[in-house]
Amino acid sequence: MATSSTLPPDTTDAPVPPRRWHDFDALRGFAMLLGIALHASLSFYPSAWPVEDVTASADGLLDELVLAIHGFRMPLFFLLSGFFTSLLWRRRGLSALLGHRARRIVVPFVLSLLLISPTVDWVADRAVEAQVVEAQDLAAAAYLGTEGAVESLLAAGVGIDDPGADGFPPLYLAAVAGDASMVDLLLARGADPNALTAEGMAVDAAVYFGREAIAESLVAAGSRDPRLPGGDWADIDYWDLGTPEEAGTEAAEAELLAWLPSLHHLWFLWFLILFALLFAPVAWLADRRRDRTPGDERRSRVLFGLMWLLVPAVLLPQLAMEGGETIPAFGPDTSISWIPEPQVFAYYLLFFTFGALFFGAADRHGRPLVDRVGRRWWLVLPTAAVVLVAGIHVTFDQGEELHPLAGALQVAYAWLMIFGLMGLFRAVLSGEHHSVRFLSDSAYWQYLVHLTLVIALQGLVRTWDLPAPLKFALIVVTTSAILLISYRYLVRYTPLGTLLNGKRTRPSGG
């Protein structure tokens, strides 16, 4: 009798056929390549991004593209990652799975942190410097810690105490940011340590945020000392009352790990490593239980029900996202620190878990569920577009009272896009297509390397007198062309290509 079953299937009862998942390989590559388009569009959308194009607008032609891609891309990616994690476990065993993850994720992650992250930092810093110099905004340069821009602006004759757009002088903002070296640089160049603002002096900012070394430097340079004679900094009634959020700096726990390289766009690999560590003991226990109770039909039904409960469960972490009630935002938050934001981690873990349970699941007639979901993609995807429009409207135009509805629409959009794209890719890419396979293989390399190129090109074209969509297209096409060529001739058939995708055989005469 056919029964509902889900991962993990009992190998004694239902061996997994050696099916090649061409459609899911292509879909995973598609999700990664969309990241290039997403990051390329961010300079045209006001956000915390190193480059802001002169055409940037929240009402431009590219803002919906940002929201549309961001709303489903990473949920789709992590669901597929869970699916392939279970596939490897069931076909090769837990030890082989962990070895595979070490080679394909841990090693590229470490190498990327050491070799790629510094280039991203460098090109982003140069882009920021160029923009603050162009704006003649010394205060912004001081707050951002771009010493090169500060020196350039001072050499160009900008006054060292000239206030920025918000009315605060450079020295005050450097104290707020907690940048001791910038404070010392400004003092050495003649900044007035007693310059008054609406919030007090620079030393008051240092006291409020608990920055003792900066306060000492300011007093040594001639600033008023707010301490009582013989008193300590901690005796001041407003000592260390400020929060990292007020200062615009990272959370305290992230500051403890500030000596590590920034995760940037590599956060997804860090999440995959953590998910694999969580998956391993569960798989180990499942293997032991299966050995003792093979063919447990009741267990399969429980797992099948759990899988579908995860669909609405995603709403809980979505509603806890910071970009909800306080700062309207469509889709999940991004957590790029070494200590993940709990709600973001839980959000993606639910999609990963769904994917893990999805592998091997069957409907009540015993047919593979993966072949049933998304069959009506031609209806599901247009519905997702309608939900996207409604979700954006509710999120940005209806206020905090409809925050739960906005979250529900955002989650519904993600699931509709996931299931619709599964059906679409199964319909058109379920067979072997060599060009699609090449693009899918290249996606990992392209995503790891693209950010340096994207930011550099954004900085190059930001002032060009061209429409935003045309500049966006130039960035995407140029980045993709460079990375595809480099993958074909420098990566694919080399040890690096083997590390990323497994060994590929060079075609005869190629």
Q: Can you offer a commentary on this structure?
A:
With 510 residues, the chain is an all-alpha fold. It is built from 22 helices and no strands. The two termini are 52 Å apart. The N terminus is likely disordered.
Write the layout of secondary structure elements.
Layout: H1 22-41, H2 63-70, H3 73-92, H4 94-115, H5 117-134, H6 138-144, H7 147-155, H8 170-177, H9 180-188, H10 202-208, H11 212-220, H12 244-247, H13 252-255, H14 267-292, H15 297-313, H16 315-319, H17 342-358, H18 377-397, H19 403-429, H20 434-461, H21 468-491, H22 495-501
Radius of gyration: 26 Å
Strand tally, please? Answer: 0
Instruction: Write down the overall mean pLDDT.
Output: 86
Percentage of residues assigned to helices: 55-70%
What is the element string, with H for helices and E for strands?
Answer: HHHHHHHHHHHHHHHHHHHHHH
Question: Termini separation (Å)?
Answer: 52 Å
| Tally of separate helices | 22
Largest sheet: none
Task: Describe this structure in a few short sentences.
The protein has 22 helices and no strands. With 510 residues, it is mainly alpha-helical. It is globular and about 80 Å long.
Question: Key features?
Answer:
single chain, 510 residues, mainly alpha
